[in-house]
Amino acid sequence: MSGHTEILDAPHQLPAVSSPAPPPAPRTIEAGLPPAVRTIVNSHLIIWTVILTFGPLGLPLIWLSPKYPLWSKLLVTFVTLGVTIVLPIAVTLYCSQFLIQPVLEAMQHANAAGGAL
Q: Where exactly are the transmembrane stretches of this chain (predicted)?
């Protein structure tokens, strides 16, 4: 360093300042997707076809889609998981109670009477 300090007395002597950089673009999940996937994620028809056909396997599409607000993504997720998990359990319990139980009782009654069904 030379120890030389420059004193600027007038405003026209100030060094040039570059204009501020533009703010960065907002980062979204959609920005990093390939164009083919971006097209799928933006199509309501494809998203609902996949969810209604494959159930929970279509949930990532709705979560990647920028078209749906958070509350609808949560609602669709809970309904899809409910139908996928709760409905089969309910059907199994119903079938065991009203279809299988009478057959077991008939077999027990036949065995008690001395013969098998």
A: 45-64, 70-95
pTM: 0.55
What is d(CA 48, CA 79) in angstroms, rounded to the nearest whole number?
13
Kindly state whether residue 53 falls inside one of the protein's structural domains: yes
Q: Spell out the per-residue pLDDT of the chain, length 117, in tens.
A: 566 666 655 556 555 566 777 777 666 666 677 778 878 888 889 989 999 999 899 999 899 888 899 999 999 999 999 899 998 999 888 888 888 888 888 888 888 887 755
Please report whether residue 17 resides in a domain. Answer: no
Task: Yes or no: say if 66 and 28 are a contact pair by the CB < 8 Å rule.
Answer: yes
